Amino acid sequence: MENLFTLRRISTGACLMLALGMGRASAQSYFSSTQEEFGKSRIQYKRFEWLTIRSNNFEFNYYRSGDKIAQNAAKIAEGEYDRITELLGYTPFTTMKIFLYNSPQELEQSNIGLTAPIDLDGSILNLAKSRVQIAYTGNEEQFKQQLIQQIARLFVYDMLYGGSLKEVLQSSLLLTVPEWYMAGISAYISGDNDNPLILDRMRTTILKNKDKKIETIQGKDAEIIGQSIWNYIAVRYGKDNISNILNLTRIIRTEESSITSTLGISYSRFMKEWREYYANSQYASAEEKTPDNSQKKPEISTNNSLVETKQKLELRPGEVDTDNYEFDAENIIKSLAAETAKAKGETTDKTIPKPGRFKETLKIKGPFAYENIVIANDVKSEFLVDPVRRMGMKNTLVMNDLLENHSIKLGLFITPVLRNHDVYLGYNNNVRRVDWGVDIQRRSISLSELDNRSLYLFRPLNINTPQTTVLSIDRRLYYNRFSAFASYPFSQYLKAVISPNLTSTSDIDVSDLGRKNLQSIYLGFRGELVYDNTTPLFSKVLVGTRAKIRLDRSYSFKTSSENFSRMVIDARHYRKLFGSLILAGRLSYSRSLGKAPKVTILGGVENSINRSIEPTNGQAVGVPRDLRDILFYDFAGNLRGFNFAKLYGTSHLLTNLELRLPLAQYVSKGSLTSNFLRNLQFVGFTDVGTAWYGNKGPFNRQNSLNTEIVGGGQNPFRATVTNFKNPFLVGYGFGVRTTILGYFVKADYAWGLEDKEVNPPKLYLSLGYDF
Questions:
Q1: pLDDT more than 90, % of the chain
Q2: Which of 7, 163, 340, 407 lies at 20 to 30 Å from 117 by C-alpha?
Q3: How far apart are CA 602 and CA 698, in angstroms?
């Protein structure tokens, strides 16, 4: 059972934490700019005052003018409950909560799905699984079908992935099924599978996709094909085998092996016979003409009020057509008598229910005031390689109410050196059209022994230390930030965000307590314009466009010489070329201005676990008096083929192009027995980037690539040597991605082109997803 508790029960201490909460991204792209948050919006035009009624097995939530819809939904759901659970062979342990909207337009205002969805094989499954939202369209039959389909789909998810957060997370690492499997079973349960028009639609969809692997089919076609497969199983092998296959899938984790083991035939033979079954002429549309130009009609068998389409099957020895089985005459007479009695409104006490099942009398209680409950919706743990503090573990907890109008985010990043950590928490309110929230973040950086892996931090501070230098210091850097934000959506895809903030920075020399601590306090604001129309194509693969323009300005209370600003543009586009080949492109640009502009660093790969640092040949030895600028370093993204920190400057320009080829989309998932193979992806890429200082652009001779400091320190001579090179670095190569022990791992092999010379190739191993 999921840990649920009401908002009213949250303690005073927890409420204080909410007031200080962290719901927004960190102050800068400190971990991974490629994982920058974008996100769509939902626009609220009105506020819903929810009421609740409860039936035997469901909870229905509705608002003004929706009482009749809720009553009708209760009758439908309870009337179908026994049939659904019997067909699935599974009864959920939790009460499903159903949110009913009076129209599709009002459903579009719902925030459900925005907070913390988890991707399970291309479908978005929110961990608050025991809920459904449905809009009433005015069509009773359509409403009934949608309600049954949603209930069935949720029951299957609960059956396959478990009822608790822990079970879902464990199952999601091991169990992946194609889209036809999940969408098809709910469509089969809710559909009129004997309807000639439905059968014709199945047949047409199968023919349209005859050259495709069914595992790669998406959307409505996947649903119809899945419906046809489950219908074929029911007709050919009996409905009892549906529950057998579902239960076996949960145990052995593949749909192909489950079908093979249950039905006793090879999967390839099953698929062949399924296609031949629908290719049979008996499934031609009822509107198609027969040779004599008369309307061809399906065979109908009428038994009083019972009308059923009879399907004639070619049966092998020992097989039984369970749907059209002819009973003994005595049983037929009894059945007719029972039907006649039922038609006349008569009742009989001789009806014997199936063992262990009984038909409950519909009971509806309420209405009650809606009880807003909070759930633990998402728990994540991931390894991150901080550019300054190296390897650490990031843990995130997301909690929200069922409607996702309120969300709480708690997070902790910690390294083996406990003094290196981030703590953040926050609160978001999405009740009205203007979303708002507050957040707080604390970052601690401890610098002790510095060697060639860390001395790059001093280069933007004008100290170019020899490569072999080892410095022993004891400095603590602290960054504290409190901010609020308001987000106004112009449409579902476009929004504007304004965020005032109060920031403090500190540099403490622990080894010299007599030294005065360096501290500054900034008052600032952030403005963003965000566009995002992307949609998931399949697991972790998007199509569409997302872009963000961000402007930060910070004003120091101490002196205007510390003021600075930064503008960032990040635009991405994902396009499906053919099959499952995806072209992904990213453009990243930033510029920092003011009397104390901040630095962006380029080179290497984000979250790299084998990074190599750009070597230096400087002669200056020492430690900068003020290290607080390190707190504001920005890391722009991947520039493969070069060392980490190859370039730096107050401005940067970077483009990334990738061709992505997921293996699982071309191979039957049932034949891929490991999660490693199912998530295997091949990538070809090219990166082009540069960074520079000042306002003259990248071709200015005075940039980090063209400028070298010689001398200084103990050498009495110090000179700045400037040459001219092409400022743009080009990296290209190929890579593979997959999942290992639940973590997404990348390996890239790249060459770097610098000033018309190709550098020796480099291998990069890194963690986390691509942009």
A1: 40
A2: 7
A3: 14
